[in-house]
Amino acid sequence: MTHQSRQTRACLLSLGGGRPGSSVDLQNMEDSGPDRRGSVFAGLVGASQVLGLVSVVITGVWMGHYRGGFAWDGSAREFNLHPLCMVLGLVLLHGDAILVYRVFSNEAKKKVKLLHGTIHLLALITSIVGVVAVFDFHSASLIPHLYSLHSWGGLTTLILFSSQWVMGLLFFLFPGASSWLRATYLPIHVFCGLTLLVMAIGTSLLGITEKLLFSIESSYPQFTPEGVLANILGVFLVLFGVLLCYLVTREEYRRPPNPEEEALSVHFKTLTEGGAPATP
């Protein structure tokens, strides 16, 4: 046990009032706490992946079975690629890119950054394919572009998502940004990532409702199988978003800082507060 650990143990024992059971309680905390949190975390991550993957599968079944399948020919089958690509890209891959910092918390920071940026790039490419598909379909069918709230929200989300990816690339993967700039932009980057996930899910819900009203407006109130399946998709998307936000915002699931990151934090505090870094 290190000197710092012994000091921490002594402090906790003193807070316990020196009772005989205090050391036993402390030992139980050390032995069972991390394992219990780890198993809960693994279960929550697994549940999030099930929700996300099932959402993609439901979207594929909806568009493939009930809406005629997929093609790239300007027909309604090309439109069917739009919801599939958007759920896969802006929801599932986007959420997983955010989650890698929690799942791989003990891996080298540079590797996690590369994985984070790569998954986001795949999400961006997939989403662009989905947007091109719907624009092609509208052009071929002589349908006006960007007239609905769903289209406004979707295009705004995609543009901001693209900007977020470029800013992250410039600040965190390229070596040009200073430590002060990175530390300043990091909270904004994290907040924008979660906000964009919420926007993507909200826009998806608008799109689901819009598609149902266009396709089965007369039979939708009769609880048709297609309508029920699409409603379940919406519920799963919401649950996926809630679970992702929970995992990302819980303090105990945050990535523990390594010595290099702690040194950077001390350096940033010195720059902003004018104090001298404490010696170890």
Automatic annotation (TrEMBL):
Q: What is this protein called?
A: Transmembrane ascorbate-dependent reductase CYB561
* Topology in membrane: Multi-pass membrane protein
Q: Name one GO molecular function term.
A: transmembrane ascorbate ferrireductase activity
Q: Which InterPro entries match?
A: CYB561/CYBRD1-like, Cyt_b561/ferric_Rdtase_TM
Localisation: Cytoplasmic vesicle, Secretory vesicle, Chromaffin granule membrane
Provide the reaction this enzyme catalyses: Fe(3+)(out) + L-ascorbate(in) = monodehydro-L-ascorbate radical(in) + Fe(2+)(out) + H(+); monodehydro-L-ascorbate radical(out) + L-ascorbate(in) = monodehydro-L-ascorbate radical(in) + L-ascorbate(out)
Boundaries of every Cytochrome b561 domain copy: 47-249
Fill in the subunit field for this protein: Homodimer.
Task performed by this protein = Transmembrane reductase that uses ascorbate as an electron donor in the cytoplasm and transfers electrons across membranes to reduce monodehydro-L-ascorbate radical in the lumen of secretory vesicles. It is therefore involved the regeneration and homeostasis within secretory vesicles of ascorbate which in turn provides reducing equivalents needed to support the activity of intravesicular enzymes.
Origin species: Oryzias javanicus
Q: Which residues form a coiled coil?
A: none
- Signal peptide bounds: none
* Listed transmembrane segments: 39-61, 81-102, 114-135, 155-174, 186-208, 228-248
